[in-house]
Amino acid sequence: MNYIHEYQEKLRTPEAAVKVVQSGDWVDYGFGTNQPILLDEALAKRKPELQDIKIRGALTLKPRQIVSADLKRECFTYCSWHFSGYDRQLHDRNLCSFIPMIYRNMPRYYRNELVVDVAMICVAPMDKHGYFNFSLSTSATQAALETAKIVIVEVNEQFPRALGGREECIHISEVDYIVESNQIGIPELPVAVPDEIDEKVARLIVEEVVDRSILQLGIGGMPNAVGNLIAESDVKDLGMHTEMLVDAYLAMYKKGKLTNKYKQIDKGKSVWNFSAGSRELYDWIDQNPFLAVYPVEYTNDPAVIRQLDHFISVNNCVEVDLYGQISSESSGIRQISGTGGQLDFVTGAYLSRGGKSFICFRSSYTNKKTGVMSSCVVPTLPAGGIVTAPRTQAHYLVNEWGKVNLAGCSTWERAEKIISIAHPNFQNELIQHAEQMKIWRRSNKR
């Protein structure tokens, strides 16, 4: 069939397309690189004529015009499922609200709970069969579009076409309006350059990686350092099953480490959910049958992850307390990122035969303004601090001073292990707190 006529009938300018948005609507922008550019600009220009427009997005990689045009939030209320650095800055200025979630549940939120009046997302060009590909972010995209009363796609010819898997595309028959933005590039995420601490942590984790391990790497310098170190190691025949596809996987592939030959499910395929990284990474994704993109309800399901032997999950955290509670998304009441898929993979990795989850962190941080150093190991999480991974799910903690396994440990064993990898400057103080909390044995080191 030829869909050119239908395409032309649905083609609109950005200004014409956003006319469908009415006061009081919930508008969905999608996830990461799929968030619209021209539609966002056009909607921002309608501020004088609209009221009470609520907008959902996540992991924003380019400034949002609906925010810049409405710094008093008189018309637009922007909300994010997971903060990028930009989202965090907006939140600090009270210009972005956070939506708590566990990532694997995101499609269910859309299908069972949420209202979407208008969805507008960026997609790759239509193919000869009439399908627009979601490209770099399958995430919960199909669930959001199924829920939406009106669907607008912003076509970008520079977007790579990601092969599935499933739920990686939408047919033109399900699209209401089409906008073209072919002169706009793709947001890239600079590859974090690991420093000495990142490399120390990476070496401790790579010691645990065996041949045929299946890897999930989170965002940031430490997971990236792990991937790069694995690429230079002697391990072989590794597999990939991850939510975020980052440049470290490409580095492993180039070195012949990533083969997926021995995966118990999705054999021969590198499974992923969304991507943000370099242009080279995006080029690798384009039409590549070695990669298979799936919705998050599959990639992040612990019941799926547990089927993969020797699953290794590597993620970051902000701080950890002496009970083993892990906060990876807030510092007190200040929201930094989000739960995302960390709890999904911490849970799934422990269920895997031979699986291990590693939560990485720096033992201390220094305030740039005051020069004062503080410990990232605290007696208890501060008031308002969010528990991303509960102590009951904590497995390995790793920083530049070592790694400890908390699985099955009593409260005093946890305190002893966690303090052993705290920065030496803070260990005596932490022991005193542990004694007051009645989680310290007299036989422990004082």
UniProtKB/TrEMBL annotation:
This is Probable butyrate:acetyl-CoA coenzyme A-transferase. SUPFAM superfamilies: NagB/RpiA/CoA transferase-like (SSF100950). It comes from Sporomusa acidovorans (strain ATCC 49682 / DSM 3132 / Mol). Pathway: Lipid metabolism; butanoate metabolism. Coenzyme A-transferase that converts butyrate to butyryl-CoA. Coiled coil: none annotated. Its EC number is 2.8.3.-. InterPro entries: AcetylCoA_hyd_C, AcetylCoA_hyd_C_sf, ActCoA_hydro, ActCoA_hydro_N, Butryl-CoA_acetate_CoA_Tfrase, NagB/RpiA_transferase-like. It is an enzyme of class 2 (transferase). The lineage of its organism: Bacteria, Bacillati, Bacillota, Negativicutes, Selenomonadales. The keyword Chloroplast does not apply. GO terms for molecular function: transferase activity.
